[in-house]
Amino acid sequence: MTRILFVDRDGTLIEEPEDCQIDAYDKLRFVPGVIPAMLRLRDAGFEFVMVTNQDGLGTASFPREDFIGPHELMMQVFSSQGIGFREVLIDESLPHENRPTRKPGIDLALHYLRDRSIDLAGSAMVGDRDTDIAFAANLGVRGFRLGPGLETWESIAHALVDAPRVAVVTRTTKETRIRVALDLDRVASDEISTGLGFFDHMLDQIGKHGGFCLALRCEGDLHVDEHHSVEDSALALGAALRQAIGDKRGIGRYGAAAEQAGEGGGEVDPLRGGIVLPMDESLARAALDFSGRPHFVFDGAFPRERVGDLPTELVPHFFASLCESAGLNLHLAVRGENAHHMVEACFKAFARALRQAIRREGRELPSTKGAL
User: Any idea which positions bind Mg(2+) (predicted)?
Assistant: First the structure.
């Protein structure tokens, strides 16, 4: 989905003179930091839409020909720096007319509300007046106000481009009540509670070895069996991962790079690829892709039916359910003799592969298709 940065013009892109009209070339001055910030936002995938009130444009007090020259020069400067605008929306009315096209009215931008390809939750508005912030609220996007003691272009770009990747997902059915919260850019002690001790231990491996903060609480119908709690926890966790990753720009995408797997002596298999993680006599291999196309392949057989309170048949089912809701392609294989070691190696190998896939490596979308 496309994220839009709606931007005011006077006082936001270019400095606003005392008479509030930029009707001469010598009045044209750019707001400090605007071009570097917009380049960062462009590279992060934002498209730009200018929304500006130009009081009485075309009247005797503000002739159109006086407006056009400085405006076109401004647009040429932006274009020369690689910054383009998807659309320029100008309201020419006077304040006392109270037209719905004038900010904070949103009639000029209504087509963005109707366009389902627009990610309004990820979009924002930047302006220098209360009317700009009210416009953002009316449109349902995040608002930033420039000004002394308020925001700068640098801080806005940081907030939108470097924002922590967090998600909170709740899932309530007749069988389970689940809440998952995660922060992919913060490491902290995990808070896991499902009523299944060994399953809690395995979920803790995902956060610990995945390198992110994970909290998951599940209240399930364990008086029936473990199936609903394990399956629904996987679905909720997958949905949270998908939400936190967002548009996937800058992520590694693949979890199979040739590097040490870290704690536990894990290493990369140079022949088959993927994270290969040993645990005593057991060995697990995981390779994943945040492709958006859910697919799960499992190769392994556990020597006993349960480890603690977790049926081993639910281990591959957990990963299949997680892949479905996260949009993950995961290949997972395990061999060994001790079922506890085998299951734990699976979760750790998956977490180490996930750690690589979610790592920020730049700003580009890691796909030749232009979408993931």
Answer: 8, 10, 128
